[in-house]
Specification:
The protein is mainly alpha-helical. It has 20 helices and 12 strands. The radius of gyration is 26 Å and the shape is globular. The protein starts with a strand and ends in an 8-residue tail after the last helix.
Length: about 500
């Protein structure tokens, strides 16, 4: 059993590759997807032989959840199908173990002959759920496991409502799901000071102080990405899939020094993103050096992707009601409405025939996969540790993209609180609640998540600059006006 992301073009040309050359009947799947108007990238669970009878109810649940707008596509693909498929594998393995014992065989020998039992989630028992929970307890934190149990419980509640099963196998006492721990974790914000952040960006992500061999291949791209996270509070995926036209060049930044655009993030929550002139300068340096070279260097790969139908070609770029937009089939479409999948493969064709990706950050012609950014931060942590110095992040903080988001949250909250103290003596000024402001900046669904940063902000106020521009100015190391020596001669224009 495995999860596949359906791509209509790939199904039509290549089918679905399966072990030992087994065929997959794509007609039924394409009909379902077309009838329900499902987008490419929607997850579909199939058995190893290409059949779907053993995954019927799991797939039906996903289809119904999408149709009824219970969850967005990102949550269905990255969360719900992931946990439901994991449980189904566990249940099937438990059944296989019982059958193997009855046959007097080892599990491996029995499965090599009979394969995985074709049972669906509706055959899950209470004992299966308890065994699954017990096995997962040692692998993940209780907060993660509670979230996972909540996801699984949602399926079985729906299964009872639809009549797929007569009794919900989840054990309950009163209104409480007894597989949930019931514990409450007090979260602590792990953040860096402004000096530590600037050091990590420069020495870790850009490689300042490292020899040429150990520096990142595209150091200005990696630096600009980290700077954006630290100065805007963007999540890892949100920053990785920004479009180039969502952040204008420095000349297009308003006179007040802050550019604003909207971005849809987790749970479909839309918020405003603020980019300062200082950050725009650093992005311009990346655009004018590495990005130009990377796009031209990988034209062959982009043309190959286009022949295979893997690119989303737009007609042009524009603005719609003050927000960045693309032109498709003669109509303007706001970038706010584009899915992450569309952002990752969107391109336009320039007058000279060059294929230009719309993504701001590119690697082999298109935005790097998320695994790249995880590996990038791992390498950056190693560089910073080896380099040492007074501004090295503390040993108990493993700096990740989310650490920079925490840093933005604490810094902005403390800065706004400090600003409020300065202005509190004027009775004619209306002061916004700093916690509510940062909640909107971060795109939190609940204000309870934002309150986790409050204690850290209260104890750090005396060390922070006075809001966005001061924060960004303290992080930027160099710009097009003062380029780093490593990029002055490294990139030359290449023929497509």
């Amino acid at each position: 059993m495995r999860t596949v992301l359906i791509n209509r073009h790939q199904l039509a040309t290549e089918g679905l590759p399966l072990p030992e050359g087994q065929a997959f009947d794509v007609s039924g799947v394409r009909t379902i997807f077309d009838d329900r108007g499902l987008p490419d990238g929607f997850p579909f669970v199939v058995d190893d032989d290409g059949g779907v009878s053993g995954c019927r109810y799991l797939n039906q649940y996903l289809l119904d959840a999408n149709e009824q707008r219970a969850f967005d596509l990102v949550n269905i693909r990255r969360f719900h199908v992931y946990h439901l498929a994991r449980l189904l594998r566990f249940v099937r393995r438990q059944r296989a173990q019982c059958l193997a014992e009855l046959a007097g065989q080892s599990l491996e020998d029995w499965m090599s002959v009979n394969g995985e039992p074709r049972i669906d989630l509706t055959q899950t028992t209470r004992q299966d759920l308890i065994g699954y929970r017990d096995g997962r307890q040692g692998a993940v934190e209780f907060t993660t496991l509670d979230t996972e149990m909540s996801c699984l419980s949602s399926f079985f509640r729906y299964a009872v409502t639809m009549g797929w099963i007569s009794t919900n196998p989840f054990p309950r006492w009163g209104n409480r799901n007894t597989l949930m721990s019931g514990k409450r974790k007090v979260r602590q914000a792990r953040f860096l000071t402004a000096d530590q952040t600037a050091h990590f960006l420069a020495a870790g992500l850009r490689g300042d102080g490292s020899d040429t061999a150990s520096r990142p291949a595209a150091s200005e791209r990696d630096y600009a990405y980290g700077l954006l996270l630290a100065a805007t509070g963007l999540r890892r995926e949100e920053g990785a899939l920004l479009l180039d036209n969502e952040i204008p060049p420095l000349a297009g930044i308003p006179h007040d020094g802050v550019h604003v655009f909207d971005r849809t993030g987790k749970m479909g929550f839309t918020r405003s993103i603020y980019v300062t002139a200082e950050v725009a300068k650093a992005i311009d340096l990346y655009r004018q050096t590495e990005r130009i070279a990377l796009v031209r260097r990988h034209q062959s790969s982009l043309r190959n992707h286009r022949r295979q139908g893997r690119l989303l070609v737009v007609d042009g770029l524009t603005r719609l009601r003050g927000q960045p937009a693309v032109i498709m089939n003669g109509h303007a479409r706001p970038t706010l409405a584009m899915t992450d999948e569309d952002r990752a493969r969107a391109v336009r064709i320039l007058e000279d025939g060059c294929i230009e990706p719309l993504g701001l950050f590119v690697a082999r012609g298109l935005p790097p996969v998320l695994a790249y950014w995880n590996e990038l931060f791992s390498d950056a942590r190693d560089r910073v540790f080896e380099l040492g110095g007074p501004n090295r992040p503390p040993a108990h903080i493993s700096v990740t993209p989310h650490t920079l988001r925490h840093t933005f949250a604490v810094t902005m909250l403390a800065g706004l609180m400090q600003e409020g103290q300065h202005r509190a003596g004027d009775p004619y000024l209306l002061l916004a609640n700093p916690v509510l402001t940062v909640k909107e900046l971060l795109g939190h669904h609940s204000i309870a998540a934002t309150y986790h940063y409050l204690y850290a902000a209260e104890t750090w106020q005396g060390e922070v600059p006075r809001a966005l521009r001061s924060l960004a100015a303290g992080l930027v190391g160099h710009t097009t006006q003062d380029p780093h020596p490593s990029v002055q001669h490294r990139y030359v224009e290449e023929e497509a």
